Amino acid sequence: MGKLKKSEIITANEMRCSCGQKSSCTVESILTIDDRGQMVLPKDVRERAGIKPGDKLALISWEKEGSICCLALMKTENLSGMVKEVLSPILNDTGAE
């Protein structure tokens, strides 16, 4: 997968979820990356997030001064809704959809 063009990047301000304005960030756990680059999401986090075997997650990154500074995981089913929401005004302007 190639790098996205600047115009294709969804900024943090454009990303929306159904958590609402009063939601907060929480450090759920500290993960260790093994020699193969793998990590384990704790069972309680998977259960609360509704993540089951076979689910697909999108890895989202934020970059600052040429280095990735933040990472987030999101179920792809939620990501597609956000992308549609961001692209919908553009598609409506062109008459496509």
TrEMBL record:
Q: Which UniProt keywords apply?
A: DNA-binding
Entry annotated with the keyword DNA-binding: yes
Q: Which residues cross the membrane?
A: none
Read off the SUPFAM superfamilies from this record: AbrB/MazE/MraZ-like
Q: Name one GO molecular function term.
A: DNA binding
What InterPro entries does this protein's entry cite?
SpoVT-AbrB_dom, SpoVT-AbrB_sf
Where's the SpoVT-AbrB domain?
A: 28-73
Which Pfam families does the protein's record reference? Answer: MazE_antitoxin
Name the source's superkingdom.
Answer: Archaea
Report the protein name in the record.
Answer: AbrB/MazE/SpoVT family DNA-binding domain-containing protein
What species does this protein belong to? Methanospirillum purgamenti
